Here is the input.
Amino acid sequence: MQKTGRPTKFNRALADEISRRLAEGEPYVKICADHHMPNFSTLWRWERNHAEFRDQTRMALQHGTHFLAHDCLRIADDPEIDARHKRVMIDTRLRLIGKWNAKSYGDKINQQVEIEPGDEIRKLLAEISGSAQILDDARKRSQFGGSLSETKVNSRRSV
Here is the structure.
């Protein structure tokens, strides 16, 4: 007698269908609602146990965010949808894709600035480096029985 119900064993054909649907912007919840699809916890187990499936679904999810971004344009251009409903639909999609694919759609701006230090900065860095050396020496002396006040006196005498 054949067992009926949701599949639990990894199946390449189902894995490919899941990835295709994710890439088309369909969420896991909707995919797993179909009776012929595994439930959500089974998909997690498949991702944990099958690296190829995990990589495939991650790529599909990333492509799905692009699909949802294009869907925002479709919604915005649809004259049949009232303005308030459009706003909710678009805002929901934008928030989700911003979290799911922060590199492409996130709000965080990552700026890197590289500068060449001028003479003033070099002097300041040298002073900081010298101060750090004095503190390191003081910590070493205090670990070996000297007090911090003795270290200050000794460092002043050596100057």
In short: The CA atoms of residues 39 and 86 lie 31 Å apart. The domain at 12-105 is CATH 1.10.10.60 (Arc Repressor Mutant, subunit A). The mean pLDDT is 83. The longest helix spans residues 51-77.
